[in-house]
């Protein structure tokens, strides 16, 4: 049976010592939708998305992807399910190029083909209208370009669910 929902977070509760960060939260996201979670600092938005990405485990609740219950124990599980996350604080190596950063952590047999990685990055850029040079060093990029590299990293790994944690927090008004 094909579900109308790409993601369902049903009755999610996440507690930390002395605080309930998420209390019986249900979030159902249909395929093709774009959502924004809005709320005050400390409202639990990032915590809920961290549960979906496997950074935290909920004390209660169920997560479904495409109608099937899934166990997301860590980010590797999330990535295997096609769920990717771009964090507020980038995880990039400044002295590496965009292509080298995208390739970091990829499973490969033997030698890594950076030309192939660069080619795939160019394809992703063309598909989504991004402007990133795979050979440019991260330290020479603007903040918005760095964020785009983070998004490309997630898309390169095949994510069909993309979580952006406070994506505008690090951008200038022009970006």
End-to-end span in angstroms?
42 Å
Largest sheet, spatial ordering of strands: 2-1-3-4
Please mark out the parts with pLDDT under 50 across 5 or more consecutive residues, or reply none.
none
- Overall mean pLDDT stands at 91
Please, what is the oligomeric state?
single chain
Q: Report the count of strand segments.
A: 6
What does this structure look like?
The chain is an alpha+beta fold and 175 residues long. It is 29% helix and 23% strand. It contains five helices and six strands, in the order ββαββαβαααβ. It has helices spanning 45-53, 75-80, 98-103, 114-128, 143-156, and strands at 5-16, 19-30, 60-65, 68-70, 83-86, 161-164. The strands form two sheets. The protein has a four-stranded antiparallel sheet with strand order 2-1-3-4, covered by helices on one side. It has a two-stranded parallel ribbon with strand order 5-6. The longest helix has 15 residues, at 114-128. The radius of gyration is 17 Å and the shape is globular. The model has no long low-confidence stretch (mean pLDDT 91).
Write the layout of secondary structure elements.
Elements: E1 5-16, E2 19-30, H1 45-53, E3 60-65, E4 68-70, H2 75-80, E5 83-86, H3 98-103, H4 114-128, H5 143-156, E6 161-164
């Amino acid at each position: 049976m094909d579900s109308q929902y790409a993601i369902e977070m049903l009755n999610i509760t996440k507690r930390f010592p002395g605080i309930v960060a998420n209390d019986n939260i249900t979030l159902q996201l249909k395929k093709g939708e774009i959502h924004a979670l809005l709320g005050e600092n400390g409202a639990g938005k990032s915590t809920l998305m961290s549960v979906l990405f496997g950074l935290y485990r909920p004390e209660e609740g169920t997560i479904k992807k495409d109608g099937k219950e899934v166990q997301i124990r860590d980010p590797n599980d999330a990535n295997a399910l096609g769920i990717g996350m771009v964090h507020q604080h980038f995880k990039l190596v400044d002295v590496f190029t965009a292509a080298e950063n995208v390739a970091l952590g990829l499973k490969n047999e033997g030698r890594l083909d950076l030309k192939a990685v660069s080619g795939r990055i160019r394809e992703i850029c063309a598909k989504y209208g991004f402007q990133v040079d795979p050979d440019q060093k991260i330290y020479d990029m603007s903040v918005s370009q760095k964020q785009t590299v983070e998004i490309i990293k997630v898309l390169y790994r095949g994510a069909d669910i993309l979580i952006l944690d406070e994506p505008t927090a690090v951008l200038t008004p022009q970006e």
